[in-house]
Specification:
Number of strands: 2
Order of helices and strands: HHHHEEHHHH
Number of domains: 1
Structural class: mainly alpha
């Protein structure tokens, strides 16, 4: 499996080096979860790193980027293929109304003021990464707890409802509010609650999940 060369030597070197390392390293969780969709897992993990590299270069104030393929493999193993904030397993499923795969792996900087360097990066899901923004982890978990409570029928205060809406509207990939130009609104309360690893085929596209069911 390889990604299309871009013409930038550093980026292409990362892609050329990382994908084979992920493929050839006996990562037990990835091997068990990916199964016959292992190539999909390799592509997803490689893309997560390259997205960070592109983002670091594209910012007006350049963000330090010092992640080597070997360090990246260590992060994969340490993650257990679960979001560091919510503990939800990674998945390639695209929920209805969401423009992105919200539960795909994403690299998050623990301290937003520092770069993508050793000790300051971890794996989260795409939605947790963007919803967190520059907030503390407790903040996004509190919002997630409120949304689950609302789904279970709890009556929230106006302040609590506003906290949820502030995160949802125009602030993350699930937002398709008319004010953002897409029409409709994907509600955070549609997010599933964390599930045991055995109930989710990690990294599998929807067609593979149906075969596994």
């Amino acid at each position: 499996m390889s990604l299309t060369p871009t013409g930038h030597p550093t980026r292409d070197q990362i892609a050329a080096t990382l994908a084979p390392m992920i493929r050839d390293t006996p990562l037990a969780p990835a091997a068990q979860a990916a199964g016959h969709d292992r190539a999909f897992a390799i592509r997803s993990l490689t893309k997560a790193l390259l997205d960070c590299w592109n983002g670091a270069r594209g910012r007006q104030e350049k963000v330090p980027f010092a992640l080597t393929p070997r360090l990246y493999l260590q992060l994969i193993e340490q993650s257990g293929l679960r979001c560091a904030i919510t503990d939800m397993p990674f998945s390639a499923v695209r929920l209805s109304g969401a423009r992105k795969r919200l539960f795909a792996p994403s690299l998050d900087r623990i301290d937003p003021k520092r770069g993508y360097v050793a000790g300051n990066v971890r794996f989260t899901s795409v939605w947790a990464n963007l919803a967190r923004n520059d907030a503390e982890d407790d903040g996004i978990m509190a919002i997630m707890g409120l949304s689950i409570a609302r789904r279970a029928g709890a009556r929230l205060t106006a302040v609590q409802t506003a906290q949820i809406d502030d995160i949802i509207v125009c602030n993350a990939p699930w937002s398709v509010d008319p004010a953002c130009g897409s029409g409709g609104l994907f509600q955070l309360h549609q997010l599933p609650e964390p599930a045991p690893k055995t109930q989710v085929l990690l990294f599998a596209p929807p067609r593979a999940r149906k075969r596994a069911a």
